[in-house]
Structures are given as structure tokens and as C-alpha cells.
Model the fold of this input.
Amino acid sequence: MLDWLDPLPASYGLAGIFISALLSATLLPGNSELALLLWLQARPDTAWSALAVASLGNTLGSLTSFWLGLRLSHKGSDALTAKLSPRALCWLQRHGSTSLLLAWLPLIGDALCLAAGWLRLPPMRSALYILLGKTLRYLLIVLPFI
Done:
């Protein structure tokens, strides 16, 4: 069934994984895990590269949500404050950037990244925790192919 993927150069498939992971981490719907699994079934020899590319793409997608929250916080948008859960904001303020280890969670992760930007959490530390959480999630998918 996946024979058509075999002749593709690895760079094409990895670019597709990157784009899928990037878009899946934004508010757009997507399923980068499925794309990654399909690619790895056809090209298991690219497991480490696929892990790196998916982690980077997904992290950059989450950082766009972080950046959007940061931009909106500078504009003082009360509309965003009304949409963010007070409980989630309190939890994020209590745990800080460490809570971004959960940025990989569907729907919740997008909101966490947006709220982290809104709260102006340290960008480098936030990016590190986002990258770590997303890499660990993808590592669980990639491990059987290594």
C-alpha cells in the first residue's frame, strides 16, 4: 500500500513531515503522528532524521502560538483574556515554562503556548520545554523503527 513512498527521495518525505508537524502545532487541524508513522513504515532508515524534523517543525508551530500570545499581550487585548481559562492561567503562572512540556497535547497544547506568550514567559526557556516535550512524544512513535 505504501509502495509509492519508497521511490521518493528522503528529502521530500522529510519536508512533508516538517510541514505536517508545523501545521499540526498551530490552530489548524492536522495529524503529524500519522504522517510520521506512514513515512517510517516506508522509510525506517530515516527514523532519526524524521524525529529531528518532526520535533523541530512541531516546536516552531507551537512557537507561532507563543508569539501570537506575546503580540496580543502587547496590544492589551481584553478579548483574549476573556477566552483564556482563569484556572489554566493560574496553573500556568504557578508552574511557569515547565508546564510547556505538555504543549504536545491536542487542543490544550495550543492554548498553553498562546497563554504562555500572553503571560510573557521567558521565550528561550519556553522554547526549550516545548521542544523537549514534543521530542519525547515523537520519540515514542519513532522507537520501534530504530
User: Anything to note?
Assistant: The chain has a mean pLDDT of 86. The CA atoms of residues 126 and 145 lie 29 Å apart.
